[in-house]
Amino acid sequence: MEEQLSTKNTTPPVSVPAVPSHRHKYEFFKVVQGYLDEAARLIEVPGYITTILSQPKNEIIVNFPVRMDDGSIRLFKGYRIQHNNLLGPFKGGIRYHETVSLDDLKALAAMMTWKCALMNLPLGGGKGGIKFNPNEVSRAELQRITRRFFHALGGNIGPETDIPAPDMGTDAKTMAWAMDTYMNTVGQLFKQAVKGVVTGKPVASGGTYGREKATGQGVVHCITEWAEDNDVNLGGATLLVQGFGNVGSNTAVLLSKLGASTVAVGDHTGYLYNPEGFNPHKLQDYVKKNRSIAGYPAGKPISREEFFRLKADIFIPAALENQVGVEEAGWLQVRLVAEGANGPCTPEGEKILLERGIHILPDILANSGGVTVSYYEWVQNKRSETWTLEEVDSRLEKAMKRAYREVTEMARQKKCTLRLAAYAVALQRLAAVYGEREIFP
């Protein structure tokens, strides 16, 4: 998942917070491992493989000092979790958020392993972050925090080792700072050879066309395939979008081009409703400027419960994990939940949604467009090439549709949910390589 960089926001909140009070008790890593274990039983994977995949290879924690604008020194805690690199270098985002924790990053790193395997990419899973609120620091402080963090990670990252990307609270600019810091620590001889140390960079600094919208574009490809399978006309369809950062906003904008209308949105500041439908382009521009939907004039503030009780065709959770529990699953009146975020549905919530006949496009399939285009960026850096937007879009569309078909076929064969099917497809690929290479020594 990719979210936009946050800076100071003085706009008052319009409603209740998006994050439910029970979220911090959620054992995210345990939930992800539960899905892995179920998928392993489904396709009868040898036990030693799930044992290896049950914990990350490396858990890196760094504490580093940063001089703040007022001259004081503040100590920050940063993490980089490297889950698995059987298929290729570790790959995954860097998250800046006050809820960053070891457990959540372990879960997110594991999910990156499954995503890369599912999309047939020569990459493994990683995730990192710093536990702080980027809203509360200046842009200059944000740059110093980023540079000190990447300097502290040192040789633990690299274009053939571990390749970070943007996530919640970070963006292309953050990656430009990260790349520049790394370039200036490897020595003059290698400076130009290490552009691929991070992906999600600005195009001028070695990024790729189509990267910013890639995760949302992937969600849309999955929705269009689902709509075709279920005889749903997206023209005139209504959407609820939770989280209007990079993923949520781009998904809404792209779906609007197909005739779908976003009638309600929410983020960490609250929820807004507009029965006539929001203009997603204008709302996206507003959020880029104001860093939240708070104060947007074209919507009526509503409560979190009212948001989840609204009748619509598609719900796109694109915020944090653990947003759709038992209560929310009972409230939702939609045909499809397309997971733009990682882990937005709890296992208990998912069970209720499925019992109610609501379809779910699981996160490791639906939001894997981001890492897929990150891979394209890495390849372009290695080859010193620049692909056109049309080439990137065409490759992504083929990759997402192929993965969707593989997952739906696995679900049909094994008579299981799309989530378990997605894990099973990914696990099959990893198991095949472990079976061929065996264990060293």
Automatic annotation (TrEMBL):
Q: Where is the active site?
A: 127 (proton donor)
Q: Does the keyword Nucleotidyltransferase apply?
A: no
Q: Positions of the site: Important for catalysis?
A: 167
GO biological process, alphabetically ordered = L-glutamate catabolic process
Q: Where is the Glutamate/phenylalanine/leucine/valine/L-tryptophan dehydrogenase C-terminal domain?
A: 208-438
Query: What Gene Ontology molecular-function terms does this entry list?
Result: glutamate dehydrogenase (NAD+) activity; nucleotide binding
Q: Where does NAD(+) bind?
A: 215, 246
SUPFAM superfamilies reported for this sequence: Aminoacid dehydrogenase-like, N-terminal domain, NAD(P)-binding Rossmann-fold domains
The cross-references to InterPro entries, in alphabetical order and at most eight, read: Aminoacid_DH-like_N_sf (IPR046346), Glu/Leu/Phe/Val/Trp_DH (IPR006095), Glu/Leu/Phe/Val/Trp_DH_C (IPR006096), Glu/Leu/Phe/Val/Trp_DH_dimer (IPR006097), Glu/Leu/Phe/Val_DH_AS (IPR033524), Glu_DH (IPR014362), NAD(P)-bd_dom_sf (IPR036291), NAD_bind_Glu_DH (IPR033922)
| Top-level taxon in the UniProt lineage | Bacteria
Q: Which PROSITE patterns match?
A: GLFV_DEHYDROGENASE
Write the record's keywords in alphabetical order, separated by commas: NAD, Nucleotide-binding, Oxidoreductase
Q: Which amino acids does the record list as binding substrate?
A: 91, 115, 374
Task: Tell me the protein family, please.
Answer: Belongs to the Glu/Leu/Phe/Val dehydrogenases family.
Could you identify this protein by its name? Glutamate dehydrogenase
Top-down, what is the taxonomic lineage of the species of origin? Bacteria, Pseudomonadati, Myxococcota, Polyangia, Polyangiales
